[in-house]
Amino acid sequence: MITLHDNGVFLSSGRLHASAPLSAEEGRKRTLAWSILQAHSVSGDPEKLQIRFDAMASHDITYVGIIQQARASGMGAFPIPYALTNCHNSLCAVGGTINEDDHVFGLSAARKYGGIYVPANQSVIHSYAREQLAGCGKMILGSDSHTRYGALGTMAVGEGGPELCKQLLKNTWDVPYPKVALVYLTGAPRRGVGPHDVAIALVKATFESGFVNNCVLEFAGPGIAGLPIDYRNGVDVMTTETTCLSSIWETDEETRGFYEAHGRGEEYKELHPGEWAWYDKYIELDLSQIEPMIALPFHPSNAWTIREFLADAPDILAKVEADAQKRYPKAKINLAQKVRNGGVWADQGVIAGCAGGLFDNITEAADILRGGSCGDGYFTLDVYPTSVPVSLELTKIGAAADLLQSGAVIKPSFCGPCFGAGDVPAHNGLSLRHTTRNFPNREGSKPGEGQFAAVCLMDARSIAATARNGGNITPATEVEYQPVRRPYHFDKGVYEKRVYNGFGHPRPEEELILGPNITDWPKMRPLAENLLVELAAVLRDGVTTTDELIPSGETSSYRSNPLRLAEFTLSRREPEYVGRAKEIAKSEARRLAGDVPERLQALLDRCGADAAKTQFGSCVFANRPGDGSAREQAASCQKVLGGFANICYEFATKRYRSNCINWGILPFTLDEGAAFPYEAGDCVFVPHIRAAVAEGREDIPAKVLKADGGEEDILLHVRGLTAEEQEIILDGCLMNYYAKRTN
After folding, report:
1. pLDDT at res. 537
2. Which of 119, 236, 362, 545 has a CA 20 to 30 Å removed from the CA of 727?
């Protein structure tokens, strides 16, 4: 089904070869990834890329902060097309006027700086980017982790807001040339097997080992030809969950058809790897062997075939229960009740977002449900088309009517079910979702209040089959139906009537409209000569997600107010963190005022440090932090609360590490296997840290001051900082870096 090969391979004439009439060094220059990355790099050094993107996209959880940072750094106009979509805070159900205030700000910013404003419920961010921004050979940067348009011949990257701020200021995205992993597709999927099944199987095969971490995935092989473009897009968007850096696919007439259908035929180019292209590693994926899949809580990689799951459901659910109970001791968890009457019964189905709400997914779900019924029991089915043009076409061809007649509910374009805003299940509910993630609490429950709900990822086809059976989990391969491939007709008039496109036509005379919740960032100080940090949170989980660092869902209403949002930091994982961090920050404020608290002075005395030259702040330890969302607030909230460092063995994603650096948080790592037996309240003293960063030293001796009075030496590392990243950390954050150079 899926085979991983941790060795290089050549690709020629669509076939794999162990050797070639040229070197691997020459062959790597023949990949699609090489040609596109080098064409966008301005560094002159092929190993150290400095990328300028063709376009950018942000949604209403991120664009306010990005624009606030950019304008504070001297931006006068958007230099490239920049789409501001409104697909995350669309409900306007929490926080009074806050969400709509952000939307009004977004439109005023698009008018002032020459941007593209996509009103609420018109399109989810990635749908609009596919429809209107993508182009073969182009690169797009988005402030959302699922920024992936590789199936359209576009290399796309999801990053934190500061990286978009850099592009707005005509700077670059800097990254070492990545490894490129070939995904070699063969065979054809069976009826009832959808893109989410392929994607979940790929994530299961690669995530835990980090096989493609920070690689570019390049899709090629004979299996591509038989895949419709929506199928390719559905697989591609989920590559984020493998922790790869980006993705790119071969293009063909199917790709051309997508661009022509959207009135943008000029954006199509035929893209294929050159003869004897060489890849650092490769994955063989036989589409014909993929079965309908189900990903159990709490990660898309926690996956089985539905067949395997149903055969062993009591034991598998018992393990999920045990894991959940360990995470949420206040909740009374009971998933065993889902196993009854010879099946496993779900309470909810959701088909939504950039992965699920695609035209082909929904039409095939309608094919399965046509003439059937979701039943009048506890099971519900909600369907969110990914954009108004898609919704309009579904209406015209009758697919929406088929779904409504079956008992499904059609809802507007919205990302909420992906991150916990809307469709929150009942306590102990089991939700089946064709969305991107099933991380802890991502469905919107509040386990701190005794609530728990479980989300399983499944393809729209099997969700529809389950709905037809009243919630009894059923793989689509076991349902008799005839899928009908329907041509898609894009109505450009929908966007022409509602989307504001001011690119190239800024109106500097117009004022930004700032609601009362939109605030400036607090002042942040440069890095001092020495650093003393107190551990405010110690997280021993194998991986810590950005959802745990800063929760999604109802907190999104406060994304434009750094101080209020920071109150939610680690709230669902380490509730004591905010209080601890605030106390540490109070001590630092007193130190800056010349009134060093007694406890802080005692710590400084223990390490022989001068209070005037030693910064005091909080620190988070986690084994592998930052998997998941690109949103910068996972790092900025720590900084707002006085955080100065993360200590870990490895950062889960490049984007989270970049967020830390851009907010002046030192990205310390430990040697794999090095002990870290310390707890909250212990402190780490890092002498001469400013000089170490300035000189590019990567090995940093430090001392742990234990709360019980003990002291131990420790070796920290800060590896691979670029010259610009060094300056950003020294200046205290990216905004300070730009302000210093502007002034």
Report:
1. 97
2. 545
Mean pLDDT of 548-561: 77
Q: For residues 108 and 124, what is the distance between their CA atoms, to the nearest angstrom? A: 20
What does the block give as tokens for 64?
């306010």
Q: How far apart are CA 252 and CA 413, in angstroms?
A: 29
Least confident among 600-609, 629-638, 716-725: 629-638
Rounded to whole angstroms, the Cα distance separating 106 from 111 reads 9
Would you say 532 and 643 are in contact if contact means Cβ atoms under 8 Å apart?
A: no
Strand order across the 277-279 sheet? 15-17, 9-12, 277-279
Task: Give the residue extent of every domain in the chain.
Answer: 2-289, 293-478, 530-742
* Cα distance between residue 220 and residue 272, in whole Å: 8
Per-residue pLDDT, 641: 96
CATH 3.40.228.10 fits 530-742, yes or no: no
- What architecture is domain 2-289? 2-Layer Sandwich (3.30)
Half-sphere CA count of 46, side-chain side, radius 13 A:
11
**Mean per-residue pLDDT for 651-666?**
92
Reduced to 3 states (helix: H, G, I; strand: E, B; else coil), residue 434 is: strand
Tens of pLDDT, residue by residue over 675-715, are 999 999 999 999 999 999 999 999 999 999 999 999 999 99
Does residue 437 sit in helix, strand or coil? coil
For residue 50, the surrounding DSSP H or E stretch is strand 48-51
With contact defined as beta carbons under 8 Å apart, do 200 and 299 qualify? Answer: no
3-state SS class at 513:
coil
**Equal fold, 293-478 vs 530-742:** no
Backbone dihedral angles phi then psi of residue 365, each to the nearest 5 degrees: -60, -40
For 100, 262, 538, the CA distances from 103, given in Å and listed in that order, are 5, 26, 37
Indicate the angle between helix axes 734-742 and 63-72, nearest 10 degrees: 30
Kindly indicate the confidence band of residue 192, based on its pLDDT and cuts at 50, 70 and 90: very high
Q: Give the span between the Cα atoms of 3 and 206, in whole angstroms.
A: 10
Tokens describing residue 261: 């259908």
pLDDT for the residue numbered 564: 87
- Residue 598 pLDDT: 95
The two tokens of residue 196 are 């989410």
Whose tokens are 């690669």? That residue is 206
664-691 burial, b at 16+ Cβ within 10 Å, e below that, comes to bbbbbbbeeeeebebebebbbbbbbbbe
Phi-psi region of 553 (alpha: psi -120 to 50; beta: other; left: phi over 0): left
Query: What is the full DSSP assignment across 123-168?
Result: B-HHHHIIIII--TT-EEEESSTT--BGGGTBEEEE--HHHHHHHH
CA distance 708 to 544: 27
pLDDT at position 124 is 96
Q: Are 113 and 75 in contact (CB under 8 A)?
A: yes
Q: Which residue has the tokens 């501001």?
A: 84
The full length of the chain comes to 743
Tokens 């966007």 — which residue? 495
Closest CA to 143 of 528, 630, 551, 623: 630
pLDDT greater at residue 137 or residue 556: 137
Q: How confident is the model at residue 553 (pLDDT cuts 50, 70, 90)?
A: low
Q: Bridge partners of 675?
A: none
Q: Structure pTM?
A: 0.90
CATH 3.30.499.10 for domain 293-478, yes or no, is yes
> In this model, does residue 743 exceed pLDDT 60?
no
Q: Number of C-alpha atoms within 13 angstroms, CB side, residue 361?
A: 33
Per-residue HEC secondary structure of 270-331 comes to CCCCCCCEEECEEEEEEHHHCCCEEECCCCCCCEEEHHHHHHCHHHHHHHHHHHHHHHCCCC
Distance of alpha carbon 669 from alpha carbon 666, whole angstroms: 9
Token pair listed for 674: 């090095």
